Amino acid sequence: MPEGGRGSGPRFRLAARTASDARYVIDPLLTPAFGFSVFAVSLGGIVRGFTGAGSGLIMIPLMSLVYWPPQALTMAIMIGVVGAIQLVPQTIRHVRWRDVGPMTGAAAVTIPVGTAFLFIVDPEIIRRCIGAIVLLSSLVLLSGWIYRGPRNPVTSASAGAVAGLMNGFAGAGSVIPTLYFVASRERAVVLRANIFTVVTLFLVITAVSLAFRGTVTRESVTIAAALLIPYGFTIWIGSRLFQRSTDRAYRLAVLWLLAAIGAFVAIY
Q1: Above pLDDT 90, what percent of the chain?
Q2: Are the CB atoms for 187 and 247 separated by under 8 Å?
Q3: Which residues lie closer than 8 Å to 210 by C-beta, 6 or more apart?
Q4: Is 111 in contact with 163 (CB distance < 8 Å)?
Q5: 40 with 224: CB under 8 angstroms?
Q6: How confident is the model at residue 14 (pLDDT cuts 50, 70, 90)?
Q7: Quick check: 149 pLDDT over 80?
Q8: Residue 119, class by beta-carbon neighbours within 10 Å (0-12 exposed, 13-18 middle, 19+ buried)?
């Protein structure tokens, strides 16, 4: 065919490139892995809307069954950051910044350390240890024990430092803040606001750290963007459930949820 003829011009090449790009975007969404991930993020969304946290503890282990673990962690964090926007208006006015500030500041230092360990340490061993700690801590609090020690910037920062390591390594940073805040005598609306704010800020910091590690790819962004639809809808469902709960029901639900997640992660 002569140069400039049909099939060789710039218009044809542009059309071919457009079709190739469209297929690159759509193909990752037409897999069993994506279908399974819809279930994972829907469950995580309900939990996030109700408790203010915990979605990563559900999404990351489940999505790691069908995606490379660092990719699953990256996608779960991107989903968590964007999906959290819809809860900001109903939580921001209840936040206790004297607790949230030191905790987040300390986590900002340790999250990159945990992210570095993600690439050099076998995550299975640490993840199982985290699951066992979550299960044990939840059962202790369910027994009626309440932490009566000091609550100040030092204790908040210490909890944040440990949580940062856990979040950077396994996306499990919400465990420590949740246990720390639920053990107090604050109202459920304050507990949920504190937990939600800390966990969301953790996610933002972790997302930045992972971006520097090169785990944010076009495929990851495509899948995460598509999963935002079921995640956002189920967050709304969880939020409606919270509005119908009592302080006691909220505490019990959170602790039993953590116990179940801890047991799952420990044996996963």
Answers
A1: 26
A2: yes
A3: 70, 73, 74, 77, 115, 216
A4: no
A5: no
A6: very low
A7: no
A8: exposed
Q: In degrees rounded to 5, what are phi and psi of residue 121?
A: -120, 145
**Residue 157 has which token pair?**
């920062």
Counted residue by residue, the chain has a size of: 268
CB hemisphere CA count around 6 (13 angstroms): 0
Regarding predicted confidence, which is higher, 267 or 109? Answer: 109
DSSP string over 176-218? HHHHHHHTS---HHHHHHHHHHHHHHHHHHHHHHHHHTT---H
**Which secondary structure element, helix H or strand E, spans residue 237, and what is its range?**
helix 218-243
- By CB atoms closer than 10 A (0-12, 13-18, 19+), residue 73 is buried
Token pair of 131 as six digits: 């699951």
Q: What phi and psi, each to the nearest 5 degrees, are found at residue 66?
A: -120, -10
Q: How confident is the model at residue 12 (pLDDT cuts 50, 70, 90)?
A: very low
Rounded Cα distance between 239 and 166, Å, is 26
- Mean pLDDT computed over 135-141: 76
Give the DSSP letter string of 119-186.
Answer: TTS-HHHHHHHHHHHHHHHHHHHHTT----S--SHHHHHHHHHHHHHHHHHHS-TTHHHHHHHHTS--
Q: What is the pTM of this model?
A: 0.75
Task: Report the distance separating Cα 68 and Cα 177, nearest Å.
Answer: 27
> Would you kindly state where each structural domain of the chain is located, as residue ranges?
31-267
Indicate the residue type of 72.
A
The residues near 30 (Cβ < 8 Å, ≥ 6 apart) are: none
